[in-house]
Amino acid sequence: HYKPIYGLKTFKHTIENDIRKKQTSISKGISLIDIDASKLNNFTEKKSYQYLTTIREYIDKQVINYNAGK
Question: Are the C-beta atoms of 19 and 3 separated by less than 8 Å?
C-alpha cells in the first residue's frame, strides 16, 4: 500500500495493519517478500509476468537455502 485511495484515515489504518502483520510473520519465522505493484494499473497476464518472475526467484532461493540446511 503506497498511496491513499480511500482517504488518509483508511490508508493509515491499512499501513498499521501491514506493519502488524509483518511483525507477526517475522516473530513466527515466516519470510515475506514485498512487491511494489503500484505501477500495475490494470491486471493483464503480460504485465504481471515480471511479478511472477520475482516471486518464483524468491521461492527458488528459499528452497535452495532450505535444502542446503538438510
Answer: no
**C-alpha cell of residue 16:** 498499521
Q: What is the pLDDT of residue 56?
A: 94
Name the 3-class secondary structure at 68: helix
The CA radius of gyration of the chain, in Å to the nearest whole number, is 16
- Reading phi first (left if > 0) and then psi (alpha if -120 to 50, else beta), residue 44 is in beta
pLDDT digits (tens, 9 = 90+) for 6-65: 999 999 999 999 999 999 999 999 988 888 888 888 888 888 898 999 999 999 999 998
Q: Is pTM beyond 0.70 here?
A: no
Distance from C-alpha of 44 to C-alpha of 41, rounded to nearest angstrom: 10
Helix (H, G, I), strand (E, B) or coil at 55: helix
User: Could you tell me the sign of the dihedral formed by the alpha carbons of 56, 61, 67, 70, in that order?
Assistant: negative
